[in-house]
Amino acid sequence: MGVVWRATDTVLGRDVALKVLPGIFADDPERRTRFEREARLLATLNHPNIATIHGLHACDGIHFLVMELIPGRDLSQLLAQGAPDLEETLRIAREIPSNHLRRLGVPLPIHLPGTEQAASPFFSPDGQWIGFFARGKLWKTSVDGGTPIELTGAPSARGGDFLPDGSVVLAPTSNSGLQRIESPGGKPATLTEPDRAAGERTHRWPAVLPGGKAVLFTIGTQDNPGNYEDATIAAVDLETRRSSSWSGVGASRATRRAATWSMPAEAR
Prior knowledge:
Blueprint: E1 3-9, E2 14-20, H1 23-26, H2 29-43, E3 53-59, E4 62-68, H3 75-80, H4 86-94, E5 100-101, E6 110-111, E7 119-123, E8 129-134, E9 137-142, E10 149-153, E11 160-162, E12 168-170, E13 179-181, E14 189-190, E15 200-208, E16 214-221, E17 232-237, E18 243-245, E19 252-256, E20 259-263
Antiparallel strand pairs: 1-2, 2-4, 3-4, 5-6, 7-8, 8-9, 9-10, 11-12, 12-13, 13-14, 15-16, 16-17, 17-18, 19-20
C-alpha cells in the first residue's frame, strides 16, 4: 500500500527509498493506522532480505517511510524476460524469511535468525526453546534468538515435541516410527516401529502427554497412504516402550477431512 520513490538523504548523503501513502488515503484514519503498523512491524525485523526501516514521517499532510534502497529488478521486470526455471525459483524461495516469534501481549513478531525454510515448530515445556525442522534436519533455537543448534537428521519429518527433560521425540521420516534424541549430535533412540505385518505404514505427529511419561501419536496405514480415514491414535509409555491404541470408550480427538472430531476412546 503506497508508491515507492528513489530519493537522496541530504543530511547523511545517501540514497534511500521513500514509500509514500497515496494522497487519497492520507485522510483515512484506518489506512494511516495500517501504514504505521507496517512500519513498526518492519522495524522489528533484521534480515538480509528485508529492507531496513530508517524512519516514519509526515510532512505537509504527506505520510511516508524512509527505507533502505536495494538496487535490482522488481518482479515484473524478471517475469518480462520469461518465467524463471525451477532452479532459479528455488533459489529465490530459499531467501524468503521464515520463522517469527510473537510474544503474548506484544502485537509485533520477532524474527528468529537461522530459521529459514523452517516447518512444524514446537515449544519446550519451559517456553525457552523452539524446535523446528529445516533442510532435512531437526533444530532448536532459543526464543531470544541466536544460532540454532542442530540436533539430528530428519529427511522428511512428520512432527516433534519436547519432553520435560529437554530431549525431543520426533518422526524423522514419512514412513518411520518415533525416535528420541537427548543431546545435539547424539544417536537417536528408537521408541516405536510401525508393525508392517499389521498394515501400519507410519507413526507420526508425536505429542507429549501431561506429565511427560507418554507420547501420543498417529498410526497411518499401508492401505491408505494418501489419507487418514482409517488411521488410529496410539500412545507409547516412555518407561516400558509399550504402545496402546484407542477405540471404544473414553475420549479422544482426531482430525478428519479438515475438521476436528471428538470420539469415544479406550486403550486396547
